[in-house]
């Protein structure tokens, strides 16, 4: 994408004070492109992953096992944003952490490109670790480009940055998906590595335009803390090595020995983090009240993401086996469905922003709680829609592609109602003591939702069965209705937050 760099008068000392990127600090172009290429590699691999896992020419796994692996992988990406943020704050600083993360992601994709099931899982782990490190720190650097939270360009800068995410997510399935499905799976994974490599190169070349604070470690570990952290890490790594070595030697090792602990971790850690913050005696009464309200949003978000993220697993696997993937007689790769959401986000986000502004001027903009409840209901409705193509497939016919497009459309509208609101309410309701950690807590809702899907798959639940889909849809709708019914109670707990 060609960048728009123009002369602009900004205050001296602002990063990129001579040239701007669409009126924003020039460093935004560097971060925009880094995020675009990272999302290109991530969403390209994600579009191929469940299809490769079930394909006869891939790993040939069952749909349940494939969904479990996919769900555990997604939950790990978001779980690792918390230690990723910790590394940026305490060890390397945001800039170095992002550079190292990009290298780890590229190495992970190259490992995935090797034609071996053993290296495949190692590659997935590397991509998850790198994504967690990068995701937690790149947004911090975007914020550092501006002169504090009151800089009038700040919100617009994040909007431009968000477009980079969706551009990468849109292009990846069309390019990487096509190569992976139609030419060679491993060549598709290698193409994801090329994308991330381009992102790392331009980040290193353009990092001179970033704010100087991006190289600073805000709260470096003391020598004692560093030693203690290394000892604990070595201890847990040693325990894991011994445990899995014993399983391997005794011949009792199976894939579930990895999947089950990681899935349980994805459920237990979010609960522990929320409980720890809620029990903190340093929080005053108002902060405690806001955390009680936030639990409603957190649980609702976990249910939302549990269903929403099945768009890349349950729906994708269904499309591969039971959908007529063609338009007007023209066949297209199954992975292309994953481009529907980002293109709809780019088309609908400005429309929603305009609607909220217009309603706000008239004093009729829905409250945060109503938007959240509506998003939950819509993701439930999307799975009620899913019942139609499931019934068509059970009758021995192929479901039309437009059924799946309708499902993704409904989920996207729900995302636009819930996700931006969730990010906003997280920052507004964060206790002062946990201001820098609460964004990681929000990502843990995604972890909890995906881990729950993983647990269901590991337990042998067929997520493509009509009864299970109907149950998930009903759960989401009921959760949305419950949030709406108790809106006055939640609103009172939120205090001065609106």
SSE string, helix = H, strand = E? EEEHHHHHHHHHHHEEEHHEHHHH
Strand order of the largest sheet: 1-2-3
Round the mean pLDDT to the nearest integer and report it.
88
- The termini sit apart by 38 Å
Task: Indicate the low-confidence ranges by residue numbers.
Answer: 1-17
Tell me the total number of β-strands. 7
| Helix fraction bin | over 70%
Name of the level-1 CATH class of the largest domain: Mainly Alpha
Q: Assign the CATH architecture of the largest domain.
A: Up-down Bundle
The CATH superfamily title of the largest domain: MFS general substrate transporter like domains
Number of helices: 17
**What portion of the residues fall into strands of 2 or more residues?**
under 5%
- Indicate the structural class: mainly alpha
CATH topology of the largest domain: Growth Hormone, Chain: A
Rg, please? 23 Å
Instruction: State the shape.
Output: globular
Number of domains: 2
Task: Report on the biggest sheet.
Answer: 3 strands, antiparallel
Describe what you observe in this structure.
The protein is 73% helix and 3% strand. By secondary structure, the protein is mainly alpha-helical. The protein has two domains: 20-219, MFS general substrate transporter like domains (Growth Hormone, Chain: A, Up-down Bundle); 272-498, MFS general substrate transporter like domains (Growth Hormone, Chain: A, Up-down Bundle), CATH 1.20.1250.20. It has a three-stranded antiparallel sheet, with helices on one face. The longest helix has 29 residues, at 154-182. The radius of gyration is 23 Å and the shape is globular.
């Amino acid at each position: 994408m060609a960048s728009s760099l123009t002369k602009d008068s900004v205050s001296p000392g602002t990063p990129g004070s001579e040239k701007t990127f669409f009126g924003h600090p020039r460093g935004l172009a560097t971060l925009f492109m880094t995020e675009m290429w990272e999302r290109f590699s991530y969403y390209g691999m994600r579009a191929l992953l469940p299809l490769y896992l079930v394909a006869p020419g891939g790993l040939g796994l069952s749909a349940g096992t494939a969904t479990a692996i996919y769900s555990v992988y997604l939950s790990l990406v978001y779980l690792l944003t918390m230690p990723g943020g910790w590394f940026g704050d305490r060890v390397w600083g945001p800039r170095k952490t992002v550079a190292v993360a990009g290298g780890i992601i590229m190495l992970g994709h190259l490992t995935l490109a090797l034609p071996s099931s053993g290296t495949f899982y190692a590659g997935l782990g590397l991509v998850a670790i790198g994504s967690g490190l990068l995701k937690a720190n790149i947004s911090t650097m975007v914020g550092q480009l501006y002169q504090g939270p009151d800089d009038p360009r700040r919100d617009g800068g994040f909007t431009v940055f968000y477009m980079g995410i969706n551009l990468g997510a849109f292009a990846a399935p069309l390019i990487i998906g096509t190569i992976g499905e139609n030419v060679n799976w491993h060549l598709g994974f290698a193409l994801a590595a090329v994308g991330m490599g381009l992102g790392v190169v331009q980040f290193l070349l353009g990092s001179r335009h970033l704010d100087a604070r991006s190289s600073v470690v805000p709260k470096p570990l003391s020598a004692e803390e560093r030693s203690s952290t290394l000892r604990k890490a070595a201890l847990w790594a040693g325990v894991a090595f011994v445990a899995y070595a014993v399983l391997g030697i005794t011949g009792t090792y199976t894939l579930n020995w990895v999947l089950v602990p990681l899935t349980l971790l994805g459920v237990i850690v979010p609960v522990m983090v929320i409980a720890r913050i809620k029990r903190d005696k340093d929080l005053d009464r108002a902060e405690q009240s806001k955390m009680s309200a936030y639990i409603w949003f957190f649980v609702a978000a976990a249910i939302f993401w549990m269903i929403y993220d099945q768009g890349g697993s349950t729906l994708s696997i269904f499309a591969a086996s039971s959908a007529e993937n063609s338009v007007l007689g023209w066949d297209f790769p199954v992975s292309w469905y994953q481009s529907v959401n980002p293109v709809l986000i780019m088309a609908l986000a400005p429309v929603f922003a305009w609607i909220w502004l217009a309603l706000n001027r008239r004093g009729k903009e829905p409250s945060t709680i109503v938007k959240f409840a509506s998003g939950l209901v819509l993701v439930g409705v999307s799975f009620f829609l899913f019942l139609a193509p499931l019934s068509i497939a059970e009758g021995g016919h192929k479901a039309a592609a437009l059924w799946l497009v309708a499902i993704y459309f409904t989920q996207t509208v729900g995302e636009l109602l819930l996700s931006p609101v969730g990010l906003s309410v997280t920052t507004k309701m964060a206790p002062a003591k946990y201001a820098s950690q609460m964004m990681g807590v929000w990502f843990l809702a995604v972890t909890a939702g995906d881990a729950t899907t993983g647990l269901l798959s590991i337990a042998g639940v067929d997520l493509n069965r009509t009864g299970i889909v109907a149950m998930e849809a009903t759960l989401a709708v009921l959760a949305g209705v419950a949030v709406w019914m108790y809106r006055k109670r939640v609103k009172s707990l939120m205090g001065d937050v609106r």
